[in-house]
Request: fold
Amino acid sequence: MSDPFDVIFRDEHLIAVSKPPGMPVENDPSQTPSLFDAVRYRLAGQQVICDRGRFLGVVHRIDQPVAGLVLFARSAEALRRLHRLFRERAVDKRYWAVVEGDLPQESGTLEHHLSNDRRTNRATAHQLPGSDRKRARLDYVVAGRSRRYTLVEIRLHTGRHHQIRAQLAAAGAPIKGDLKYGARRSNPGGGIYLFARALRFTHPMTGRPLELIAEPPPDVLWDLFPRPAAPCSFGNDDRN
Reply:
């Protein structure tokens, strides 16, 4: 059986793969097969149960209905250093989203304060801060348009729960298929049109610049839009 993911980069310290929509990054109570187990199986070349001594660490997560780049560490030291890079916002994270309607400007910054309802697993974007709210900031560039949809490239400055989904919905442009945040209808399979497109950072073990770019899977809607060869420029690279 073929792997449910594509390997984007692999060395002795890291492995980056492109996750399909609908697959959780880690094991969860639903018992849906996880990306973590699939990658560990691939690295072992045999049944997972025989591979318990081989290290694999989750560096970051993307939501289950989201597809795209996910990074794993292959040693405890690489995991520790990568966590520090993410914590210090030294990783440039780019996403593509197909949204319903349009955004008011060709490019801009969205700033909100997000609260989370654990009961519904939903974030709400507020204009004003509050004791239970976390500041959320992203930049966006409109990268393409069709009659009904807009392709947006996003650069995250913060990494809040459901941040992109909540902020785009608050701006009047919910992600296609994202019923939780106001989309008109769901997509077959339950995925949404949000794709973790690129990661740029300094390799934690070699010190070399590393840029990882994944391509969305063949799809009628993704294929409506020309795909830029490289991530868009957002000008000032300040991620504070």
Remarks:
- The domain at 6-222 is CATH 3.30.2350.10 (Pseudouridine synthase).
